[in-house]
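Thread: "does anyone have the structure for this chain?"

Original post by V.I.:
We have the sequence but no experimental structure in hand. Need at least a predicted one for the grant figures.
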Amino acid sequence: MPRRCTLRKWRTGSTIFLGFAYREGSRRKIPIFITFKDRITYLVETIRALHRNIRTPFEIVIIDDTSTFPAAVQFVERLVDSKVTVLRVPQYESGKFDSLYAVIARMITEYMKERSKADYFVWTDPDVPLDSAPGDILEVYAAALEGLEAHNVGAAIRNDNWTEDMRDNKHGNEQDFIKLPASCFVYREICYYYIHASIDTTFAMYRRNTVLQRLVGPTARMLSPLAVHHLDYLIDKTKIPEDVKYYVKRTKGDITHSWFKDHVEKSPS
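Reply from O.Q.:
Generated one for you, C-alpha cells below.
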C-alpha cells in the first residue's frame, strides 16, 4: 500500500491528499553529485555529514573540476581506490559559471542515462553540509518534489549561525530569502517548512530525466532540519584554511562569489 501524505499543491495553494509509494523492494541508490575543486576541508565535512545524516540508500559521485591542491588531489585518488565514482570535468570556458554548469549538467545527464536506475538524483556543492537532518531526508525531498509539482526541491541555508562579518555583508540572494514566508509540507504526519525560492546546486533534488537548466521554477527550499550550513558564511577570516585560499586565488570570473573573494583576500596572511 502506498504511504499517504498531505501535500500543499503548488499552483492553487489548496490542500490535497496524494499517495507517495516508496518502493521498499527496489531501493535504488540515489546519486548525490558533488561538484568539487581544491577545497578539501569543505569536501570532507560535507561527505561526513552525508554519511552521518542519511539512511536512505545513496551513492556519492564526485565531479572534480581540475583540482590541483596537493591534499585535494591525494584525497580524490583515495576515493577512487575506495571505489567511489569520480568524474573529471573536461575543458570549458574558464571563469564562466554558466559554461561550467552546462558541462556538468551534461555529465550528470549521461551518468543518469547510462549508469543509474534511480528515480531521483541530488546535485550539490562541497561547501554545504547537511544540518541535523532526519535519516529519511531523501525520501522527504522526493515526496515534496512530486507533491509540490516542483522542478526541483533543495535545501535552504541556515542563517542563525553566520559569523558577524558575514551577517553584516549584503551577499547574493540569501538576505532576501530570509524574509520569505514559509509554507508547511506534511509528510508522515510531520510538518516540514519550506520557502518558494530559486535553487540549482545547493543540495537540490531532481527527477532522473530532468533537463537541467539554471534557476528555473517552480522550486522549493526546505528549512531546518532539512537545511544546510554554508561553510563560506561560517568561516573565521583569521583562520582561513590553506586550500580555501588556494581555491580563491585559482578561480576566475564568476565561479566564486565576489564577496567571498574579498573576504579571503582581506584576511590576515
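V.I.: this helps a lot. The longest helix spans residues 97-114.
O.Q.: and Residues 238 and 268 are 6 Å apart (CA to CA).
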